[in-house]
């Protein structure tokens, strides 16, 4: 009987974790590349994206091919301005924890030190490419941005409009 009570209590306490995923987004969700109905190539340079704006439709699944032609690591992150501001604070904290230059260990490699598991975000090292596939769910304006400290402020942000 005691074991049944313990199992029941554990099941009850784990329900909130099962009911709300760690990452949920009002504008959509990650998808498998095979589900994409369109592929969009985005070039990442030092402090710019090309193109600077994108338009998708609600319900559309888009495979983004991200090509970093810049000299440093850059990020492609989908979200609204509030999400990006929060993410930038997290990235700044990661940089502070990983910056060993004051100890004579050289400068920080942004990409290696700032890896994270957000499904709406991909870090791309210089000269490399990566992919992100996303199904957009509702008509709302969002941004794609690089949240490596200082990059967003230097203009590495673009508008993504989700239409009907």
Automatic annotation (TrEMBL):
Checking Gene3D superfamilies in the record gives: Cupredoxins - blue copper proteins
Which GO-annotated molecular functions does the record name?
Answer: copper ion binding; electron transfer activity
User: Keyword Mitochondrion: yes or no?
Assistant: no
| UniProt domain Blue (type 1) copper: residue ranges | 39-162
Q: Which InterPro entries match?
A: BlueCu_1, Cu-binding_ET, Cupredoxin
Q: Which UniProt keywords apply?
A: Copper, Metal-binding, Signal
Pfam families the UniProt entry points to = Copper-bind (PF00127)
Signal sequence extent: 1-19
| UniProt-recorded name of the protein | Cupredoxin family protein
Per the UniProt record, the source organism is Pseudomonas donghuensis
Provide the organism lineage as a comma list. Answer: Bacteria, Pseudomonadati, Pseudomonadota, Gammaproteobacteria, Pseudomonadales
């Amino acid at each position: 009987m005691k074991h049944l009570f313990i199992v029941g209590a554990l099941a009850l306490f784990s329900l909130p974790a099962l009911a709300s995923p760690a990452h949920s987004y009002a504008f959509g969700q990650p998808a498998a590349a095979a589900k994409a109905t369109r592929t969009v190539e985005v070039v990442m340079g030092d402090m710019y994206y090309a193109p600077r704006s994108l338009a998708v439709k609600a319900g559309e699944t888009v495979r983004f091919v991200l090509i970093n032609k810049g000299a440093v690591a850059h990020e492609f992150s989908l979200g609204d301005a509030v999400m990006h501001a929060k993410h930038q604070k997290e990235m700044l904290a990661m940089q502070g924890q990983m910056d060993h230059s004051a100890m004579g260990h050289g400068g920080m490699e942004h990409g290696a030190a700032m890896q994270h598991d957000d499904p709406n975000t991909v870090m791309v090292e210089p000269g490399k490419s990566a992919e992100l596939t996303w199904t957009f769910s509702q008509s709302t304006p969002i941004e794609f941005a690089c949240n490596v400290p200082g990059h967003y402020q230097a203009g590495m942000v673009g508008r993504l409009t989700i239409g009907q």
